[in-house]
Amino acid sequence: CYRENILKTAKALVEDTKLLVSGAASSQDKLAQAAQSSANTITQLAEVVKLGAASLGSDDPETQVVLINAIKDVAKALSDLIGATKGAASKPADDPSMYQLKGAAKVMVTNVTSLLKTVKAVEDEATRGTRALEATIEYIKQELTVFQSSEVPEKTSSPEESIRMTKGITMATAKAVAAGNSCRQEDVIATANLSRKAVSDMLTACKQASYHPDVSEEVRERALRFGTECTLGYLELLEHVLLV
């Protein structure tokens, strides 16, 4: 029942995405209508996903987290898409903002597809871990793209904060190795959830620290490079766990 509702609402959201993209080239009224429609649809989708997560029961919290993370990714992608649509409104077809809009729309559809795959996998215990890991790998890749962009973080943090966040990577690495050895679905799901947070926190802290006023341009470049290398190395580890 929940799966059918999620599928139906997700399809409506994809249609809203198309309207948002086409709305950038049309009137402000149509764009506003598309934005409002997509906001209503994402609210409905979040509700049915939360009901679906609740129906799993409290004895499987890690899988509930996987579902909630999936809808959070869709909501974030929609927010970015609306921002990109506003930036591209009334601009010519070859304007750079139009390419950003297409990229945001692609991420949006990718995340909706990922959500649907996750919902399907939840019903099959044998594939839950695999799907959770695939979703986490996709999420980390998207986070890395944001990290590598020229966008300056809204706030900065100390180098110490960045160092503190690397401890999460160490813990997640140990968990990933253990999951690869045990091959138990619950261990793999817990690894996926922990990895997602650890890498995201590390990338955020690393970028914020690299833009600290006391940091030179040379040190900033090195910090950003090592943040990328760490993430790529961790992605390779998760790919190996997935293979196992």
Tell me what you see in this structure.
This protein is mainly α and 244 residues long. It folds into 2 domains: 122 residues, A middle domain of Talin 1 (Up-down Bundle); 119 residues, A middle domain of Talin 1 (Up-down Bundle), CATH 1.20.1420. It is 83% helix and 0% strand. Helix 3 runs parallel beside helix 7, helix 5 packs antiparallel against helix 8 and helix 6 runs antiparallel to helix 7.
H/E series: HHHHHHHH
**CATH homologous superfamily (4th level) name of the largest domain:** Talin, central domain
Helix content: over 70%
Q: Determine the strand fraction and express it as a percent band.
A: under 5%
CATH topology of the largest domain: A middle domain of Talin 1
Number of domains: 2
| Terminal-residue CA separation | 33 Å
What multimeric state do the chains show?
single chain
Largest sheet: none
Mean pLDDT over all positions: 91
Query: Which architecture of the largest domain would the CATH scheme give at its second level?
Result: Up-down Bundle
- The radius of gyration over CA amounts to 19 Å
Shape: flat
CATH class of the largest domain: Mainly Alpha
Number of beta-strand segments = 0
Low-pLDDT parts are none
